[in-house]
Amino acid sequence: MAAHFALLIDPAAPDDLRDDFAATFTALDPSAPALSVSELSTQRGDGIFESIGVVDGHPQEVAAHLERLAHSAALCDLPAPHLGQWRQAVERAAAACGAGESVIKLILSRGVEHGPAPTAWATAARAADNTGVRERGIRVVLLDRGIDSGAADRAPWLLLGAKTLSYAVNMAAIREAHRRGADDAVFVSSDGILLEAPTASLILQLGERFVTPAVGSGILHGTTQISVFEHVAAQGHPTAYEIVPAEKLRTVDAAWLVSSVRLAAPITAVDGVGIPTDRELTASLNRYLLSPRD
Ligand code: PLP
């Protein structure tokens, strides 16, 4: 949905000692043009972003999102973000969100071509209504990502663990899933290992255990997955990051795609074949994910 709030951020150096970064923020008209046509974010997708869920004005897991923004910046050789400054930008954006669910986006771009500095901005918008998907669930297809699970280590320039603005491939995978009669995709490495979805992390329930694909294989470390693991661990369930063969997804007790805005969407079928779901557990995970989390 269209943004109802936008803030241009003049990025501060990481060692800036100010307590108040108001002077570095410029409120923008979210419906008016704001970026230079020479922006490398639009020309090359050269930049990074975060999407933060907001519930009734409370931005969820801000520290984890800012940590990942810093991690993505390091992988992309972008200047380290000043986390205090970005936190204040998030607070401003959250103050512009009313009741219900919203999404704050943080964007740090390489800037304009030959320009002196990166461009940074934050937006806030109403979130799409995901209630149906959380209850009804989603059918997924397994899609080959075309790279093996060792590629992240061997070829760091692929930026596999960074949340970059280059999501064209991820969007193409979702379109392919739709062509195959499913709602979403789960990427599999060329050596047959489960990875992640184009916009979500994968969590499997195997008996009492909750398992997610190991982050080292070139996937994003999801803030929602971390939160779900803390929640189920507090209830006594063992949790683990593992290398999981693709076939395992067909023999789970339950599985979910989890992300900051859609939250926990139960997987109902893999490549057209049904898998078990747990309605009660899914509802309790989403209740937890909708409660204020820091
Ligand atoms: N993996 C990918 C590729 C994503 O794009 C996302 C979120 O957009 C996630 C995982 C889940 O991350 P988070 O839970 O922090 O939203």
Automatic annotation (TrEMBL):
<keyword id="KW-0808">Transferase</keyword>
<dbReference type="InterPro" id="IPR001544">
    <property type="entry name" value="Aminotrans_IV"/>
</dbReference>
<dbReference type="Pfam" id="PF01063">
    <property type="entry name" value="Aminotran_4"/>
</dbReference>
<dbReference type="InterPro" id="IPR036038">
    <property type="entry name" value="Aminotransferase-like"/>
</dbReference>
<dbReference type="InterPro" id="IPR043131">
    <property type="entry name" value="BCAT-like_N"/>
</dbReference>
<dbReference type="InterPro" id="IPR043132">
    <property type="entry name" value="BCAT-like_C"/>
</dbReference>
<keyword id="KW-0032">Aminotransferase</keyword>
<dbReference type="GO" id="GO:0008483">
    <property type="term" value="F:transaminase activity"/>
</dbReference>
<comment type="similarity">
    <text>Belongs to the class-IV pyridoxal-phosphate-dependent aminotransferase family.</text>
</comment>
<protein>
    <submittedName>
        <fullName>Aminotransferase class IV</fullName>
    </submittedName>
</protein>
<dbReference type="InterPro" id="IPR050571">
    <property type="entry name" value="Class-IV_PLP-Dep_Aminotrnsfr"/>
</dbReference>
